[in-house]
Amino acid sequence: MLPIFFSTFILSACCCLTKGNCISYDELKELKTEFAINLYRHVSEAENRTNLVISPASVAASLELLQFGAQGNTFTELQDALGYNIHDQSVQDFLHVVYEGATDSSQGTVVQLACSFFVDAGVQLSPRFAARAARWANSSLQQTNFTDPNRTAAQIQEWIASNLGGGDVRGIPLESAGSPLSQVTLVSTMYFKSTWQKKFSFMDTQMLPFTTAEGSTLKVPTMHHTADVNYGQFQTAALEAFNVLELPYLGEKLSMVLVLPSHKRTPLSQIESHLSAKTINLWANSLKRTKMDIFLPRFSIQSLFDLKTVFSALGIRDAFDPITANFKGISEEGSLYLSEAIHKAEIKVTEDGTKASGTTAMVLLKRSRTPIFKADRPFTFFLRQANTGSVLFIGRVTNPS
User: Which of 256, 270, 388, 400 is the least buried, fewest Cβ under 10 Å from its Cβ?
Assistant: First the structure.
């Protein structure tokens, strides 16, 4: 299993210090999840029926850093979009727990969230902001020279690759980073690599039919195994039935949750329209341990988004306006504004290289006795932290091929 995510945010030129009301741990869990759902909903509407994946954790970490340096209405818009005030101590305490879990290497799992401010040598950062940025979500500050766009782009790409396990960073547009107006580039990355708690066997993978969102049927490599998993059956207010399955990773700190309409005639969008923090929490608390026959197609998705339109839909507008943007908490010099918001995410789901003994006849015999979860039609997935409920990434598969 190898999901890789990263997003880049580019600021081109140029805190609120009031403590907010104390927010409970459960309220913050819900706010973080609601941001993930809102982000996914706006992106998925624009992408219509295509495969997609996005990392809300990566996007949120960048917006939190911007909140540290934003003032006035620019700060208010960022706060409203995220749902919380980064200057609130209870918020910081909660997010430190989230990001500790998002920077972990144990039991065969690597999870790493990182952020970096690339600052032009001529920009004088606020000491207060520099101190906060250096302590936030595995962040760093790096000096660069934006008058040398090739060198700057290479420096940024090298940092991205080093925080993605040497992953492919081609296709990341950084045009504004080479602009003579550019002074600061904010880059965030999310890297995840893990193995299933119970691995699939390559020997049990078969070419099986999958019905796409358009209604056509094609044969795709479909993984299979039988395991004890958390599973539940639900229905919407309109009586549209769907299944929810949780597949844990090694160590069970993280899991992938799959949401599958019960009937092929039910569009995935009908189920997704009911996604919310409350429904996800309901599923998590209602799933029952069940021995299941699981069929899951291999899939690999790469998504690249211009988030400027999405952020506008979330109410983040002043940040992109050279006149109204207020990032004086970052630097008093010049007038910084957000010129680009770019996000790239990748995910690859496989059997994870494990081979097991057994024959097809034995597998088929087992299937006839066990309840079946068969992802042979479009489904939604998200990767979630067990202790905080934080959604590290979310996406959908409409065509595994």
Answer: 270
> DSSP class of residue 243?
E
**Residues 73-101, mean pLDDT to the nearest whole number:** 89
The answer for 389, left when phi > 0, alpha when psi is -120 to 50, beta otherwise, is left
The SS3 call for residue 300 is strand
Alpha carbon distance 191, 112 (integer Å): 5
C-alpha distance across the termini of the chain, in Å: 17
Q: What residues does 342 pair with on adjacent strands?
A: 8, 306
pTM of the entire predicted model: 0.86
Cβ atoms within 10 Å, residue 45: 12
DSSP strand pairing (288-297 vs 391-397): unpaired
| Contact present, 298 and 196 (Cβ < 8 Å) | no
In whole angstroms, give the CA distance from residue 314 to residue 129: 25
3-state secondary structure (DSSP) of residue 241: strand
DSSP-derived pairing of the beta strands 288-297 and 372-374: parallel
Backbone dihedral angles phi then psi of residue 210, each to the nearest 5 degrees: -135, 130
- Render pLDDT for 351-362 as a digit per residue (tens, 0 to 9): 762 222 111 111
